[in-house]
Design brief:
The chain has about 600 residues and is an alpha/beta fold. The chain is built from 21 helices and ten strands. It binds adenosine-5'-diphosphate.
């Protein structure tokens, strides 16, 4: 149990976490006002009931004739009140809980919209399970705080003070005595909710771990099955599940303790009231009607007292969740547009010898690059110029820095200023939109969306025609296969549709890049899963189509590399050799050695017939 000292919950920062939600409260203000008014009407009507009971009892005690008719009148009044309570309760539930759903929707849209702007490094450092838990659990907790939290706050305060007021009007001494347990209730509530808040955070954390585990085991199912590790994976999932249940049980135990404890304390007050109030009634200090009404008010007070306790926990939960959501909303994309409208920022240094007019030129000027937080440089003093319209191959052993170099061009990784230039402009001074519109990028890991073949190729661009999509599929060597599907290009792919092979996925991704007709096309080992002959065919078609465009290709296959105008050879992050295929063979350096190895593996792939 936390000590009393640390029970001083920092309320201000708690509420400050909710600041981003203010705009939804302003937007929904009329619904909120009407909702709160309906809630107040319900409270008012509820407060009327003990008064009617009081009247009825007094009639029974005092009146001697006409009791029946009078009681009927009171009964009908209570019936009418009950009807009105039902009506207004419906109204406030719709309006106030509806408001909380709108907050939920707004927050979710904002969170997702913001997450999309974040850079790759954010996703590398954040677990998907964490993001999903934010999007589900945390947003739920915020919704509860904005909906039921608000209701309990208003209800608890208004109904509570009004009930106490009515009790005071009956007898102030009795009221004070019956309120003796109240401070105890407040302290116990604060202690329990404090603990609940900490436990709730742990539940959230273990839920996020569980989600991450589930995601990982489903997306890695092929590897798991291939290695027959279902049992092992099941064990890992079970352990996470048990941990989650354990944490939830902890929370449930605290909750289970909380409500009975509250009822016990408030009922202790009732016992005193019956003893003392009964005595007052006998002595004639208060009427029997007052006595019964007083008990009815005390009963009515149970909910506000609990509501106050609940409010604290709802708001604390919501606040903890908001703090985590704010953590994401405040995350700044590591890679940002330069200052100035549309990237017209300071011009910076220009690349020498590269014409500004040409579309599709790339220049690296003394580029040094290391990954954020790493000591070692992955690229060291890289100087190379690619002219617009050239086809370039980049070659090197695994880990030599090829992928890193290519990912820097569309700024998927952030280079230092004045070291990388596209069309003569420092890419750090170009807006991301302008830069990325120039570049088609196909990486090693392809992604197919759960959508139609057509949409996977057109990929959100409206100005692509059906013919262009089909032509791109032809270039990528997959048109016939796709057209032969049940519903042709309208066939659903991915989780909701058919599963493609690795090679088909790669070819479809190539089609997506080709349809964009970008001045620069970067293929980073983009056809590793298709056979050599198919790869050669596809590349020939791409290069024929893009004769006057810039093409940068990383591939291990000799047949692909040979077609390049120039070849750059990387080793340990440095550019070591440069030239045409023939000149590099004559050099008898790294390229020549790699070439020998490749010839051998390609001939093995082609059935052992050595052909170069
Ligand atoms: P290649 O494409 O030639 O195989 P990479 O560019 O993928 O080479 O990798 C170059 C070096 O950068 C390797 O030493 C690799 O370990 C390192 N590296 C790649 N990605 C990251 C990353 N996200 N964080 C830190 N180091 C990385």
């Amino acid at each position: 149990m936390p000590s009393l000292k640390n029970l001083t919950v920092p309320f201000k920062p708690t509420f400050r976490n909710f600041q981003p939600l203010w705009i939804y409260f302003v937007k929904n203000r009329w619904a909120l006002v009407a909702g709160v008014l309906s809630l107040l009407v319900v409270d008012f009507l509820q407060l009327m009931i003990p008064l009617i009971i009081k009247k009825a009892i007094n009639i029974l005690v005092v009146q001697t004739s006409g009791v029946g008719a009078l009681l009927v009148k009171q009964g009908v009044t209570i019936g009418m009140i009950a009807l009105l309570i039902a009506l207004f309760r419906y109204v406030w539930r719709r309006l106030l809980l509806g408001h909380s759903r709108k907050v939920e929707q707004g927050l979710r849209d904002r969170l997702y919209g913001h997450i999309q702007t974040l850079s790759r490094s954010f996703f590398q450092n954040t677990k998907t399970g964490d993001l999903m838990s934010r999007a589900i659990n945390d947003i739920n907790a915020v919704r509860m705080a904005c909906g039921m939290g608000l209701v309990a706050l208003v209800d608890g305060f208004i109904l509570g003070t009004a009930a106490i007021g009515f009790m005071m009007s009956i007898d102030w001494r009795l009221t004070l005595i019956s309120l003796i347990p109240a401070p105890v209730v407040v302290v116990v509530t604060r202690m329990v909710t404090q603990q609940m808040s900490a436990r709730f955070e742990r539940v959230q954390k273990s839920f996020s771990d569980l989600t991450e585990q589930a995601r990982e085991s489903f997306s890695g199912i092929r590897v798991i099955k291939a290695h027959q590790r279902e049992g092992w994976e099941y064990g890992r999932m079970k352990a996470r599940g048990e941990q989650y249940v354990g944490e939830s049980m902890h929370l449930a135990r605290t909750l289970a303790l909380f409500f009975p404890l509250m009822t016990l304390i408030t009922n202790a007050g009732l016992a005193v009231v019956i003893l003392l109030g009964g005595r007052y009634t006998i002595l004639g200090t208060i009427t029997p009607g007052d006595f019964v009404a007083f008990i009815a008010y005390l009963n009515l007070l149970t909910w506000p007292v609990m509501a106050m306790g609940w409010v604290v926990s709802l708001i604390q939960r919501g606040s903890a969740s908001m703090r985590r959501i704010n953590g994401i909303l405040e995350a700044v994309p590591e890679i940002q547009d330069p200052g100035g409208e549309n990237g017209r920022g300071p011009q910076g240094k220009r690349a020498e010898g590269v014409s500004e007019k040409a579309e599709g030129s790339i220049a690296f000027s003394g580029l040094n690059f290391r990954y954020p937080g790493q000591k070692e440089y992955v690229l060291k003093d890289v100087n190379l110029k690619i002219r617009a319209g050239e086809t370039i191959a980049i070659v090197g052993r695994v880990g030599s820095g090829k992928t890193t170099l290519l990912q820097i061009v569309p700024r998927l990784l952030n280079p230092p200023e004045s070291m990388v230039f596209v069309d003569g402009r420092d890419i750090r001074n170009l807006s991301l939109n302008t830069l990325r519109k120039k570049i088609g990028f196909v990486s090693q890991d392809v992604f197919i969306f759960s959508d139609t073949v057509y949409n996977n190729v057109a990929f959100g661009t409206d100005d692509v025609t059906d013919e262009e999509v089909r032509q791109a599929l032809s270039v990528a060597g997959i048109r016939e296969e796709m057209e032969a599907l049940d519903k042709g290009l309208g066939t659903l792919l991915g989780e909701r549709g058919i599963t493609l092979s690795g090679g088909q996925r790669q070819r479809l991704t190539i089609a997506r890049a080709v349809v964009g007709d970008f001045p620069i096309l970067i293929l980073d080992d983009a056809l590793s899963m298709v056979d050599t002959r198919t790869e050669a065919g596809i590349l020939n078609r791409i290069l024929d189509l893009r004769q006057d465009r810039t093409n940068v290709i990383v591939s291990h296959r000799v047949s692909t590399i040979r077609r390049a105008d120039r070849i750059f050879v990387f080793d340990h992050g440095s550019l070591k050799e440069e030239g045409t295929h023939e000149s590099l063979i004559l050099l008898r350096g790294i390229y020549a050695a790699l070439y020998e190895e490749q010839i051998l593996s390609e001939s093995l792939e082609n059935g052992g017939v050595i052909s170069s």
